[in-house]
Amino acid sequence: MTQSDLLIVGGGVLGTFHAAAALERGLSVTLCEASATPRGATVRNFGQIVPSGMQPRWQAHGRRSLAIYQDLQSRTDITLRQLGSVYLASDYDELGLLEEMAVINWDNGYPSHLLTAAECRKRYPGLREDYCVGGLFFPEEVTVEAREMIGRVLAYLTAEKGLNYRPGHRVVKLKGGGARVQARDNHGNQYRAERAIVCSGGDFGSLFPDRLAASDLELCKLQMLRIAAGPGPELPGNILTGLSIRRYESFRDCPSYARVKETEDPGAFWKQWGVHILFKQSPDGSIILGDTHEYASAREVDALSFENRPRLNEYMLDEAKKIFDLPRWTIDASWNGYYSQCREHDIHLETIGDRIHVVTGIGGKGMTAGPGFSAAHIDHLYAGTPLHPVTASKPATTPS
Ligand SMILES: Cc1cc2nc3c(=O)[nH]c(=O)nc-3n(C[C@H](O)[C@H](O)[C@H](O)COP(=O)(O)OP(=O)(O)OC[C@H]3O[C@@H](n4cnc5c(N)ncnc54)[C@H](O)[C@@H]3O)c2cc1C
Q1: Domain-embedded: residue 317
Q2: What would the pLDDT profile of 300-328 be if each residue is shown by its tens digit?
Q3: Residue 103 and residue 110: Cα distance in Å, rounded?
Q4: pTM (2 decimals)?
Q5: At residue 392, does pLDDT exceed 80?
Q6: Within 10 A of 225 (CB to CB), how many other CB atoms are there?
Q7: Which domain does 73 fall in, by range?
Q8: 9 lines ligand 1 (CB under 6 A)
Q9: Do residues 163 and 21 lie in contact, with contact meaning Cβ atoms separated by under 8 Å?
């Protein structure tokens, strides 16, 4: 029987950073992860930490995440690099949104600066002159190598903070009752804790399947590509392009957003498949390129095909070639990832009894907002502080 103050289910970004925050409070923490190493959304993504893409409440969590990631990197190498993020506009509607976004960020005290098209081409060699009309750069934003980062954080928490990490242990039963929660894993091990936090990502079947099926949760499938390492330009940081400007929630606060969206063709291929084009170069020179979005409700996750659609990969590649002239476009890996999100809410939080807290459905913002949100959630549960920061919007003024 393993006893601890807190039992966490799931070793993705939400489970791991809930554990980190709880350990900081001096709690004893056991974390069960079903796989030998986490294999969910947390290791399949770009590793782009981009609070700039989020509306104020989640941008605040994202900015707290930046500080948490930087603090961890100062103690151990978690693959973090501060190379900034850029949004590249492909037309004057998108450029107008970037100019408005610069004003909004100025008011929020979040540094960003506009780049001319020539400045963009200088900073991002190979950027096509016929694509980019200007950009907006966020110097504080960072990247991580998603396949390595979470393992390094878990190893650090285990070695330095006393985390009881149980990889390869799937929790198959969890119940509250009395003053403790009780759990059992797939090997028959028993756990007791004062509370449990369930961060099982897109796994709606293992625990509480009926509750999750009755919620507004859905599963989103994304297709991703990697362009092989080889000779070619350095493309630093997070590179987001015109379709991201049209997709990311932060731009909804821009005065011209509604007008720009009205002029879009509702039947466009990129809209139908939720395509936007993002680039993230890894230290070895390979480039992650993505992504696409397909959805199914928590009740019907099997409706999502496990196959990738070659047509979507070809489309992403064709669009990417309109943005950069690269000497090579060899694809050496393609994969899909799945994240859970809510149809109506911005995260799924459910307390079962008064000691089991289910946290999932953070959507496409988990790497960015996850660590900050997890810290806020632990503070909320153990110290009663507000779950979300107060984010008042101020009247717009002009950035320098
Ligand atoms: C392709 C892709 C690209 C993305 N790009 C970005 C990006 O660049 N920036 C960004 O901010 N966000 C991005 N996201 C979103 C981000 O990856 C997710 O929001 C985040 O990883 C979700 O974390 P999680 O901990 O909720 O879930 P997961 O990472 O899926 O973790 C859940 C874990 O729980 C474990 N588990 C499940 N059930 C049990 C059980 N019963 N017992 C024990 N363990 C269990 C699973 O094995 C898994 O490891 C992307 C997502 C995808 C898929």
Answers
A1: no
A2: 999 998 999 999 999 999 999 999 999 99
A3: 10
A4: 0.96
A5: no
A6: 21
A7: 1-81+143-216+345-393
A8: yes
A9: no
